[in-house]
């Protein structure tokens, strides 16, 4: 059963959730803009830049909701800077294809994780989170580009498969670290006495579902998970 925004601890958790989502969106926008510089041609550059624009639009909605709640969105986002910088430092793509796989896989993993949490949110917050995670709308472009590259040079498939596994490991590690470090955010996930959320077994099943969804996503790219 979703918790209520009137609960001060839950409200703090929601603010933290919106903050980490907002930082994730602006961070993804920035990284995609950088990745666009590695694009092999103008068409690919525009496609990647369009994905960056979609991420920015998502950021604006999250920022505006924080303002509506009377919060400073930038102060709310700041505590998560280290988390995202750490992740991006560990997963810096070496070429545009790795950048595309990172955007596609990273977006999917984040969406899966936050959709799981959304089941325990109040209706308004849940609707915003789900809408924000609706995707950049360019998954077909990424799939076609990666599969085309593998068809042109099968060796690319092995390299990108290893890259996808690395992304998965780092993303899960960062997600677990964030939940462990943020008490209020943990309350959103595990709930309280009146509004119980997931127990440890439930959290384990959640990560299993996320791992399975990742494998399906990799398969769409023509890569082994």
Could you describe the 3D structure shown?
The protein is mostly helical and 225 residues long. Helix content is 77%, strand content 0%. Helix 4 packs antiparallel against helix 8 (155-181) and helix 5 (96-118) runs antiparallel to helix 7. The protein is globular and about 55 Å long. The model has no long low-confidence stretch (mean pLDDT 86).
Low-pLDDT regions: none
CATH architecture: Up-down Bundle
Number of domains: 1
Structural class: mainly alpha
Q: How would you describe the shape? A: globular
- The CATH topology corresponds to Ferritin
Series of H and E elements: HHHHHHHHHH
Q: Tell me what portion of residues adopts beta-strand conformation.
A: under 5%
Reported for the largest beta sheet, the result is: none
CATH homologous superfamily heading = Ferritin, core subunit, four-helix bundle
Distance between the ends: 34 Å
Report mean pLDDT, rounded to a whole number: 86
**H/I helix tally:** 10
Q: How much helix is in the residues?
A: over 70%
Radius of gyration using CA atoms only: 18 Å
Beta-strand segment tally: 0
Question: Which properties best describe this structure?
Answer:
225 residues, mainly alpha, Ferritin, 10 helices, 77% helix
């Amino acid at each position: 059963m979703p918790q209520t925004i009137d609960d001060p601890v839950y409200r703090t958790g929601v603010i933290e959730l919106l903050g980490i989502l907002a930082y994730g969106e602006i961070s993804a926008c920035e990284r995609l803009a950088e990745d666009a510089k590695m694009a092999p041609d103008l068409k690919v550059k525009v496609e990647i830049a369009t994905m960056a624009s979609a991420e920015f639009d998502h950021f604006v909605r999250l920022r505006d909701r924080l303002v509506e709640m009377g919060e400073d969105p930038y102060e709310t986002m700041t505590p998560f800077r280290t988390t995202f910088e750490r992740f991006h430092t560990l997963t810096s793509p070496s070429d545009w294809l790795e950048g595309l796989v990172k955007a596609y896989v990273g977006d999917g993993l984040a969406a899966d994780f936050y959709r799981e949490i959304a089941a325990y949110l109040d209706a308004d917050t849940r609707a915003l989170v789900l809408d924000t995670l609706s995707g950049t709308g360019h998954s077909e472009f990424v799939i076609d580009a990666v599969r085309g590259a593998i068809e042109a040079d099968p060796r690319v498939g092995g390299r990108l498969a290893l890259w996808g596994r690395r992304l998965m490991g780092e993303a899960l590690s960062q997600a677990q670290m964030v939940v462990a470090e943020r008490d209020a955010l943990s309350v959103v996930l595990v709930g309280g006495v009146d509004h119980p959320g997931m127990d440890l077994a439930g959290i384990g099943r959640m990560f299993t579902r996320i791992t399975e969804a990742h494998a399906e996503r990799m398969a769409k790219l023509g890569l082994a998970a």
